[in-house]
Amino acid sequence: MGHAILILGAAMRPDGTPGAALVRRARHGAALWRAAPGAMVLASGAQGEAQAIAAICRAEGVPEDRIVLEQSARNTAENIAFSAEILAGLGIVRVTLVSDYYHLPRARLLAARAGLRVVPAAPRHGIGRPHRHAWLVLREAAALVAALSARRRR
What we know:
Elements: E1 3-8, H1 20-35, E2 40-44, H2 49-59, E3 67-70, H3 76-90, E4 94-98, H4 104-113, E5 117-121, H5 130-153
Parallel strand pairs: 1-2, 1-4, 2-3, 4-5
Organism: Rhodovulum strictum
Protein name: YdcF family protein
Pfam families: DUF218
C-alpha cells in the first residue's frame, strides 16, 4: 500500500495563470514530496488547475512519473470523490491532503467519508488582507455546515 500527496486545486486567474492559492498549495505539495520521494503526487482540479499544479511540481523537482492528474473536479467534493477513485485504483488509502488551512476541515471530512486516511498539510499562509481572510473563513464555515448537513439527510 503506497502513499500519495493529494493537492487540491484552487482558482485560476482570468488570464489562465494559476492564482496565489494554487501556487502556494502546489509548492507545498512539492516540498512534501521531496521529504517523501516514494509518494505519488495527485494533482486535482478542472479548468487547467491539475495541469498547473503538475507544472509547478515538475519545476520544483517532482519527476513526471510521480505525478497523476485528476482533471475533472470543479469543487472540493468532486476533488475528493474523483481522486479517491484514482487512489483506489492505485491501491492507495494513505494520503497527505494539501490545501489551505481554512479549507482543510471540510476537505478532511469529505476524504474520511471517501475512505481515505488523511494527514492534513497546509502551506504557510500570511493573513493577507483582513477582509479577504474573514471572507474565506466564513465561506468555508458555511460550506462545512452544508457538508455536515448533507450527510445527515442521506
